[in-house]
Amino acid sequence: MTRYTFTRDAGHRLDACLSGEPDRAAAQLKERLEELELTHDHFQVSVEESRVVVAGDSAVQEQKEKILLALGNVAGVTEVEDRVTAGQEGIFPRFFTVREGETLRDMAVRAYNDPEAVNRLLIANRPAVTAAEEITPGLVLRAPA
Fold first, then answer.
1. Which PROSITE patterns match (predicted)?
2. Cis upstream peptide for 127 (omega within 30°)
3. Helices marked H in 36-103 — which ranges?
C-alpha cells in the first residue's frame, strides 16, 4: 500500500462534502472515473476525511496511475491510498505537482528536460487533462519515463 499526497484546493469539485458525506463523495468519485472512462468492474473507492482509498485490479500500470490522479486531483482530497494491483509490481509512477506560474512547457522541462515534450505530457494525462490551458497550480500530473 502506497499513499500519494495532493493539494487540498486543486482539481475537480464534487457536490458532496468528503468528510460530511463520505458515502456520497465515494459514489461521486466513482462517477468521475466513469466520466473519464477509467472504470473497471473490480474497483472499490472509499472516503475517510480527506483521504481516498482505492482498491481493486487494474489491467495495466497506466490505467492505475490515471485512476490515482483522477481521484487525487479533486478539491478536498489530500491523500490517495493505493491498494490497486496492476500486475506490473515494482513500477512506480512519476507524479509532478504543478507549481505556481508554471506552464505545461515548464513541466516538460522539469519532467523530461525537453521543452518540446508538452504533447507527451498531454497524452500521458488524458482524459483528465486535454489542453495546456487546463493546467493549474496544485494539480498533479503523471510523467511516465
1. BON (PS50914)
2. yes
3. 61-72
53 within 8 A of 83, measured Cβ to Cβ: yes
Rounded CA-CA distance 87/105 in Å is 32
- Beta strands at 79-85 and 51-57: parallel, antiparallel or unpaired: parallel
Q: Grid coordinates in use for 93?
A: 509512477
Alpha helices by DSSP H, 36-97: 61-72
**Looking at the chain, which runs of residues are DSSP E strands?**
2-5, 44-48, 51-57, 79-85, 95-97, 140-142
Expressed in angstroms, the distance from the first to the final Cα of the chain is 22
For 67, residues 6+ apart whose C-beta sits below 8 A from its C-beta are 33, 38, 43, 54, 58, 84
pLDDT, tens digit, for every residue of 52-65? 999 988 768 888 89
Quick one: how many helices (H) and strands (E) in the chain?
A: 4, 6
Question: How far is residue 60's CA from residue 67's CA, in Å, rounded to a whole number?
Answer: 11
Whole-model pTM: value is 0.89
